[in-house]
Design a protein that fits this description.
alpha+beta; ADP-ribosylation fold; binds ligand HQG; about 180 residues; Arc Repressor Mutant, subunit A; about 20% strand
Length: about 180
């Protein structure tokens, strides 16, 4: 993605996931905000986003971090929020195994406590090793954990899947984790 679009993507992630109030925006149920309000608020705060660039970020960004609603009037981040929001996701059946990419320095704590959501709404899990490796690489040399998601679900843990194929759950106890 071009640098200009990466900058816009980062800006949107900040305000649609973490700090909508700093632009004077309030997320509606589902995490939605009006596209017009978002563009006006951004411009007012000194960051003008051309509409065509916004569309390009939403539709072309390889991670599909953002979506428009069916009318195109509303936009949201698909996952990754730290602000309180009900994304209105329905529980979904996960594949038998999912993956989590992390780094060595977190490993002993993870194997002791399990995966915890920290500041985010959910623990984020990847559907394949390659994606998990990318997620872990953000922090250093990636370490991949296999999550026994089928067994977790059978034991009563709920799973959700975001519009961009990130699997979400509240927590993963250590008994469901194996280092790959
Ligand atoms: C670790 C990106 C110690 C966990 C990606 C991770 C993802 C623990 C970090 C999305 C722990 C949290 C989310 C425990 C978990 N002890 N460390 N008990 N449990 N951790 O960023 O999964 O670019 O909140 O391993 O693609 O890294 O934002 O979560 O390293 O989908 O669109 O604590 O962010 O997407 O870090 O990444 P994060 P994550 P975006």
């Amino acid at each position: 993605m071009e640098k200009r679009l990466v900058t816009i993507s980062k800006y949107l992630a900040k305000y649609l996931r973490h700090a909508p109030q700093d632009l004077g925006l309030e997320l509606q149920p589902g995490g939605w905000v009006s596209v017009d309000d978002l563009l006006a608020a951004a411009a007012k705060h000194g960051f003008t986003i051309p509409y065509d660039d916004l569309v390009e970020v939403v539709e072309i960004n390889d991670k599909r971090r953002f979506s428009f609603d069916d009318t195109g009037d509303l936009i949201r981040a698909n996952q990754g929020h730290s602000v309180e929001v009900d994304l209105q996701l329905s529980p979904a059946d996960p594949p038998e195994t999912l993956y989590h990419g992390t780094v060595d320095r977190f490993l002993s704590s993870i194997l002791e406590q399990g995966l915890i959501r920290g500041k985010r709404h959910h623990v984020h899990l990847s559907k394949d090793v390659e994606t998990a490796r990318r997620v872990g690489s953000r922090r250093g040399k990636p370490v991949i954990l296999l999550v026994a998601s089928g067994r977790m679900q059978a034991d009563g843990h709920a799973f959700y899947v975001s519009a961009n194929d990130v699997w979400l759950t509240d927590a993963v106890p250590p008994g469901y984790l194996t280092r790959v």
